[in-house]
Amino acid sequence: MKWPLQQPPFPRSDMPLYNRYYLHARGATRGDPTIVWGTDVEWEELQNYLRRLNEGARVLLSPVHVLLKATAHAVVQHPRFNCRVVGRRVYAYHEINLRLAFRDRRHGDVRVVLLRRANELSLVDIAQSVWSVAIEHASGNWAGDRDCRRLQRLPTIVFHWVWRLYSWLDTRFPLPALGRLDGLRSGAVFVNDLSFQGAPPMRCYKPSRFPDESTTVSVTLGPVEHKALVRNGVVTAGRVAPLIVRADHRLVDSCQLAQFVATLREVLQHPAALDRRQSGAHGPNDISSTQARRFVEREPGEAA
Questions:
Q1: 22 phi and psi, to 5 degrees?
Q2: Sign of dihedral through CA atoms 201, 193, 77, 83?
Q3: Residues 6+ apart with CB under 8 A from 279
Q4: For residues 256 and 56, what is the distance between their CA atoms, to the nearest angstrom?
Q5: Is the C or the N end of the chain the one with fewer CB within 10 Å?
Q6: CB-based burial of residue 208 (10 Å sphere; 0-12 exposed, 13-18 middle, 19+ buried)?
Q7: What are the angstrom distances between the C-alpha of 290 and each of 44, 46, 275, 280, 301?
Q8: Residue 218, pLDDT score
């Protein structure tokens, strides 16, 4: 059992007026606390960066791993995004934990990976953790499968009231995290990679809010496409990917969201600034680059 939230909550006197307005509003007719900012990320430098690293890396690195590392870096720079609302009070998380969604083709369902203390992990550590969990899901060895099956077997009326009770408690009290699935509440940021092969160009995307209040930030990377870019006053052809960030207006305002997106975008466009520690001995659970490539060939990457 872990307590993901810090005590005490933020003092009410530190809350800006308009954040407090959204914090105390009720119902969609009185206020929507969701704000979304979309931008483009130039892709060439990120692609070249990954190509160089993968030539000698012991684990296959992909854009989603860089996205996770860049997101953790942005949260460190803007700690207000690592908070959540409980009972109209704002609490900060103890750790910077990230959630990553991916599609489990075995069950035709979406699964979520929780990366604990992502800001302390190197790029290789992040890739190792994500590949390990993905391969566990693909091979049917994930420890949380039993919990998922138990929830799916619940009768509809039982599932409904269990969720209603859990939701009522979770939105009013800073509860501890119990079990594997409940531990997913320990992260404020949800990362979604929609740059999978075959995805159409993204012109607009609004991430849905989670039924609970634990995830207050959503970072989505869209499919890469060719566009005309202006570089040094010259129009050239380049590759860009859309980056969409949703935030909670009860916690941050549009200026803070713009600063967060700018930090994230800058790191993605210049990824060499990230931690590139590649040292570390192979352990019994290490996922080799060959294993990861075989997994990609068997289960093409596709996020929720």
A1: -70, -30
A2: positive
A3: none
A4: 38
A5: N
A6: exposed
A7: 24, 22, 23, 18, 16
A8: 92
- For residue 189, give the amino acid letter: V
pLDDT at 21: 64
Q: What is the CA radius of gyration of the chain?
A: 20
pLDDT for 8 equals 83
pLDDT of residue 300: 39
- Residue 21 burial class via C-beta count within 10 angstroms: exposed 0-12, middle 13-18, buried 19 and up: middle
Q: Which amino acid appears at position 20 of this protein?
A: R
Give residue 266's pLDDT: 94
DSSP string, 256-296: HHHHHHHHHHHHHHSGGGS---------TTPPPHHHHHHHH
pLDDT for residue 32:
66
What local confidence, expressed as pLDDT, does residue 161 receive? 87
**CA–CA gap between residue 53 and residue 39 (Å, rounded):** 26
Closest CA to 124 of 302, 270, 238, 287: 287
Rounded Cα–Cα distance for residues 287 and 135 (Å): 9
The list of the chain residues with pLDDT below 50 reads: 28-29, 276-285, 289, 291-304
d(CA 189, CA 55): 31
- Domains in the chain: ranges and CATH: 33-139+184-298 (3.30.559.10)
What's the pLDDT score for residue 279?
39
